[in-house]
Amino acid sequence: MLQGKVVVVTGAGNGIGRAIALVMAREQAAVVVNDIGAGLAGDGRDNTPGQQVVDEIRASGGQAVLSTDSVAEAAGAERIVQAAVDHFGRVDAVVNNAGILRDAIFHKLSVADWEAVIQVHLHGSFYMSRAAARFFKEQQSGALVHMTSTSGLIGNLGQANYSAAKLGIVALSKSIALDMARFNVRSNCISPFAWSRMTSSVPTDTPEKAARVERNKQMTPEKIAPVAVYLASDASQGVNAQVFAVRNNEIVLMSQPRPLRSVHRGEGWTPQTVAEHAMPALRASFVGVERSSDVFSWDPI
Ligand SMILES: NC(=O)c1ccc[n+]([C@@H]2O[C@H](COP(=O)([O-])OP(=O)(O)OC[C@H]3O[C@@H](n4cnc5c(N)ncnc54)[C@H](O)[C@@H]3O)[C@@H](O)[C@H]2O)c1
User: Residue 274: inside a domain, yes or no?
Assistant: First the structure.
């Protein structure tokens, strides 16, 4: 599906990014495999994971090149996109997948952990998209695929930094979709569920939790790749500004905020009438203080 296309996949040394890069190459794309080889919290550097993916793609006859710049620096993102143009002559799609985690319960969340997570996920996705945008405009085509999360779309404990970044990415994607549709550019989000080092820290201290982890292991990163490849390909013309959750063998179109219910008083509101009239009327439609697992409450199928 990607013959003649050049794609950049960030964070492609591990997990979901790695699986996406391999399937992109299998579908005939030339791939820039970008990864700094960081630990889960973003510390350290290691070229090995990215190089292994490049080697694997080349060993099966595909085209790939390694990029070890960080998406978290604007100049780094420029170099990542430039690598596609320098090595393969163009850039057709960018998958913003690189990510880190620094979980902490809100009152203990440090400024450093807030900033680091926002920097890699939200700023990194902006830097990468911005770097690709000028090429996309010039060639009047392009596709962006961003990884969001149900931690942001729905909610999760101890992830204020990550959730804020991931929901910010949805707004970024929507804004790009609006601004760049005139240049035939599409921008969509995937909200993946996958067993990776990012999710494998779930405790298994009871038989129930251990059984749940075993079921979750079915959700391999490879299950996410077909949707990412499709969204990067010309087959997805007309698919723009959407959010797809991908969970084992399910693909879910996620809703986006819309007015749910409204109350109106011709004479306007006082704090008292808000309390006595508006809230009781709206309460029936309140969204619960829910976590991702409350909403995606069924086992992966
Ligand atoms: N695994 C899941 O269930 C899940 C759920 C929701 C969202 N996501 C999102 O999917 C994406 C991939 O997650 P994963 O589970 O495969 O994680 P992972 O930790 O296995 O892989 C992330 C990769 O990103 C790289 N990286 C980190 N900082 C970077 C930077 N500044 N520049 C370039 N590369 C960098 C890391 O070195 C790592 O190889 C992330 O954006 C994550 O937030 C994952």
Answer: no
What would the pLDDT profile of 247-289 be if each residue is shown by its tens digit? Answer: 999 999 999 999 999 999 999 999 999 999 999 999 999 999 9
Report yes or no on 126 lying in a domain. Answer: yes
What residues contact 84, with CB distance under 8 A and at least 6 apart? Answer: 6, 7, 8, 30, 32, 90, 91
Q: How many domains does the chain have?
A: 1
Spatial separation of the C-alpha atoms in residues 147 and 127, rounded to whole Å: 15
What's this model's pTM, rounded to 2 decimal places? 0.97
With the most atoms of ligand 1 within 8 angstroms of its CB, the residue from 8, 9, 10, 16 to mutate is 16
Establish if 270 belongs to a structural domain.
Answer: no
- CA dist., res. 23 & res. 39, Å (int): 24
Q: 11 alpha carbon to ligand 1 midpoint, in Å?
A: 6
Kindly state the average pLDDT of the residues 68-87: 98
Residue 36 binned pLDDT confidence (cut-offs 50, 70, 90):
very high
Identify whether 232 is part of a domain. Answer: yes
User: Which residue among 196, 197, 200 has the greatest number of ligand 1 atoms within 8 angstroms of its CB, and so is best to mutate?
Assistant: 196
Find the domain containing 121 and state its range: 6-256
